[in-house]
Each structure stands twice: as C-alpha cells, then as structure tokens.
Structure prediction request, 189 residues.
Amino acid sequence: MSQKKKDVGVDLGLSDEEKELLRRVALQTIEKRARGERGPTIESASDKLKEHRGAFVSLYKKGMLRGCIGSLEGKGPLIETVREMAEAAAFNDPRFRPVTQDELPYLELEISALTPFQEVSDPSEIKVGIHGIIIRKGYFSGVLLPQVATERNWDTITFLEETCRKAGLPRDAWKDKDTAVYVFSADVF
Prediction:
C-alpha cells in the first residue's frame, strides 16, 4: 500500500514524522486485519496526535475509491480516530466488500485530519479547495471532503448541490432556511 497525494486543505501543524506515524498506524491496522491478526499497538504519540480531532481515511485501488469512512468530530485522540477509521474504511464501508490480503499491494491511502466545523450562512464563506461541506436538514445529512470539489473542478454552487444530493435532498436544499450548512478544513496527506 502507498500514500495518495492531494494538493488541498490546510496545514494543521502536523510534522512529517507525525503524518508518517498516522500513515503507518493506518496501514498496519489494515494489513494486520486482512491477515487475521490483531491490530498494531499504538506507539507513544505527540501532543498533536493526542488532540481530539475528526478524521477520514480513504482507500483507493488503481485510482478508484475502494473505501472511505470518517468521523467528523474528535471523540478521541487523532491517532486512535485514524486507526479506527482505517479499519472501518477497509472492512466496514457498506459500498464495498471487505479488503482482502491479495489487494494490499494495490491500495493507496489518504488521511484527512479535520478541523472543527462551523456553520456558514452565505455561500461566499465557502472556499473550494480549503473547505469540506456538511449539509443537515431534519434527518438528512451529507458530507463531502475538501478534495472532492477540487478533484472534480466544482465551483461553490456545484459543491453545495452535490453535498445536498449526497444527503438525499434536492440539489437546491442548501437555500432552505431550515437547512444547516457547515464547513471544515482538513490536512490531507
């Protein structure tokens, strides 16, 4: 497995060593589980990796999405969240069958460490390539990471419409007064 590179997001101040440790924990978790072994013991972590942050782990196989699961809110240390989301992306994403040992050499990994999200009231507050979007209306909600809009060359309105669509809402639901729109940023590596 290797790392997938993106030119989006923000720098949360994670060092190259901290990012490498997060990648190593995610990769070892997936590899060990695919082989039927227990997950890795997490090494001592820096203060940054102990911060409670949300994170997503995306897996790609030959450039195609193979799994992506995340937690928007930091319910525990970032290093634990990354470990849990790596396992979930590989084995619990309902859109895909669980990763097999034979697939391991073909997988690429991308981690998105998130900032807390903030509600916005005006689309001009959304910065494509910097922000991800969360749409919530009643029981419906959808989220798209910052890199999705960049990969697909979307403008702000298209990004909002596609997040509504992912939430199972009409494309223009973001305009409704009872729809909440939130943004967040991510350090993507």
